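Each field is listed here:
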Amino acid sequence: MRLLRLLPIPFALLAVACNEPVGPPPRITALPRALTTGEQQIIDADNRFAIKLLKQVTADTRDTLENLFVSPLSVAMALGMAYNGAAGTTEDAMRATLELDAMSVTEVNESYRSLITLLRELDPRVRFQIANSIWYLQGYAVEQSFLDANRTYYDARVEALDFASPTAPITINNWVKDQTRGVIDKIVDQIPDGMRLYLINAIYFKGDWTEQFDRAQTQPRPFHLLDGSTVSVPTMTHGREADMRVGRPANPLVMDLPYGGQAFSMTIVLPGDSVGVDQLVADLTADQWNSWISSLQPRKSELFLPKFKLTNDLTLIPSLGSMGMGIAFDPNAADFSRIHSPSELYVTEVKHKSFVDVDEEGTEAAAVTSVGVGLTSVPQSINIDRPFLFALRENLSGTILFMGVIRHP
């Protein structure tokens, strides 16, 4: 009879906030070096996974959440650490779900290592941090090769803890609080019996808009909900035309609003009147996303954008199971024998906490996930006055960091 051990993998955080501007930031127009083949493959894989995850979670939470915000990159990266411990059909399922079919485990690891370094150092006006950690039960025989791989490629902090001690959750939560600059201060309440391992990934982003909105211009404006009703929401504007990038054709309207030196941005997709945001997301593909992004062109426009702030606390096992990873959650079938042999571990939970706050100066966002193992003319004025899709991304590499759906600001 297999012992049923728990493999919770808490991961994911972003915080986007603002600093007071000190002169116009220099524009970053190119990466400091060309992407390696492996980096391009992992970015493409992560972006395909991001679209799949957004589609699945949107469908799964449509009746329970008005607004949604997730960090696919953090989810993918934490699962990437767990992937180092998977074997057999569990490894196969994770590879397919994470869109990694074209890459070996070593290629995945090496690509994440170099991509993490590249993104961290890209824009001096934006603080972008990725941190990883592994916390395991003191005395539990974790395969050294698993720990070494995650320490080497993910720069993971690796520490054994007495899970029976009341200080163990405090230690883990303090690390989370540290890495997220206090935006998320807790991921572990109590450590249950049978828990053997936590893998945690934290992503932190802090930046201000390249052109900040004029706080004095913010005022209530109508926002049209999916049910046909209209509400009044605080809506920001620059009070003038501002630099942005806008795609063609204009249905849906795709626009890009930069942070800092313009390497990072928020991309907003506003559906046409005849297609709601849920249908837009349901029909979305990676090819469609890439087409939208490639169509973006610089322009000046007056923008009206609702302020919004939301917190989500999600359980992702149902969504990841529907995406093909169900075997990792099955105590009778999961194979994580590259973490501990003989195989007795399975993923018991995937929890994802997220937070985003968009205001006149910038955006603050955070996410913590716990996994248990012709041309239509473009309007001169852009009014985001109905439910929309948005993403926070790094433009030069094309990496999607966060995605969300706003139905009611």
Residues 304 and 357 are 16 Å apart (CA to CA).
